[in-house]
Amino acid sequence: MTTTLNNNVSSVEAKKKLFGMVLAFIQSQCIYTATRLGIFNLLHTQGAQSLEQIAQQTNTHPERLYFILRALAHLEVLQESPERVFAPTELSELLVTNQGPSIGHFAMHLLEPAQWDAWKVLEEALHTGEVPFERANGKGVYEFCQDNDWSGEVFINAMSFLTDHAVDALLDVYDFSRFNTVMDVGGGQGGLIARIVKRFDCKGILFEVPYVAETAPAYLLQQGVERDAVKIVAGDVFKEVPTGADAIVMKYFISAWNDEDAMKILHNCKKALPPHGRIVLLQAFVPDLDEPKVAPDGIMPGVFAVQVNVAVPGGGWRTKKHFQKLFEQCGFQLEKVVDSQTNLSAMEFSLI
Ligand SMILES: C[S@@+](CC[C@H](N)C(=O)[O-])C[C@H]1O[C@@H](n2cnc3c(N)ncnc32)[C@H](O)[C@@H]1O
């Protein structure tokens, strides 16, 4: 028995839909390759260029490069005019990587060869239960990024981009002003904590692994954060979480870990908080069966969760109910859930 698609699309429409899904990787790869070659940066600074000019400046073979540039033009990422001249568009401007964190860093992080290698072993890893990224690369993503300068820099910028993309809409609907000191655990370069301290006039703590923490002072300065407003602490969340905050935020952090590790993190957070403290979990949440599958910014958390699961040790993105259960097992209770206009929602927990 076949199941008819819920909007009763014809088989033509169904095939069209599947073609789009099956061929989507070509679009991602064209974007990735052009970003890595610096083509969007080049067009951003120099304006429209001929195929030959682009090929010369990127040390590529023009006839082969043409396939990629033409495809990007068909996708409206570039604009092609006669004589094979290519100009930037609104989309290519968003992929520029030399003007601060952008969706270009996000594309490079998700599609870099080490990540792609993980997808290649997905089927085998499903049989063995391994983390595909670890099977393919012999180490975890965080360790890999620490050991490879380019990957590390791209990863940090990709995370900062995600913060820039979603945080203001979240802070419009979730108020941090009742806290004295907010600590961002696994807070990257500090984009979120910078916005919290500036907007709500509280103190901040940024807790990160050493190689990321090192990059934070310059980033915070650039964000206009006063020197003593955010204390930067380098460490390992599995060993100890610093005290001093009455609220802990974790954005896209706990989702990297399986339930067992997530519980260790929550126990360490609990030890670090005062009795009236709060944990604010910031995440995209995988929808339950009766919830919308697409977030307001177009991201499908249930689909994106596969990428997280391929890259890091399990768990991935969870449903709100799953997170609630996990927190309750560690002595927290849910106070409220706040959704925003992007994929990011907040779940606030108090200590029982
Ligand atoms: C997926 S990123 C999210 C970064 C940031 N919260 C955001 O949303 O942009 C996870 C972060 O956790 C940090 N991290 C990983 N392992 C950690 C550990 N054991 N202790 C503290 N931070 C850790 C990583 O360096 C990375 O910046």
UniProtKB/TrEMBL annotation:
PROSITE patterns: SAM_OMT_II (PS51683)
Domain O-methyltransferase C-terminal: 119-333
Gene3D superfamilies named in the record: Vaccinia Virus protein VP39, Winged helix-like DNA-binding domain superfamily/Winged helix DNA-binding domain
The O-methyltransferase dimerisation domain, residue ranges: 22-97
Keywords: Methyltransferase, S-adenosyl-L-methionine, Transferase
CDD domains listed in its UniProt record: AdoMet_MTases
Keyword Methyltransferase included in the entry's annotation: yes
GO molecular-function term, one example from the UniProt record: O-methyltransferase activity
A Pfam short name: Methyltransf_2
The organism's place on the tree of life at top rank: Bacteria
Keyword Ribosomal protein (UniProt): no
UniProt-listed SUPFAM superfamilies: S-adenosyl-L-methionine-dependent methyltransferases, Winged helix' DNA-binding domain
A GO BP annotation: methylation
Name of this chain's protein: Hydroxyneurosporene methyltransferase
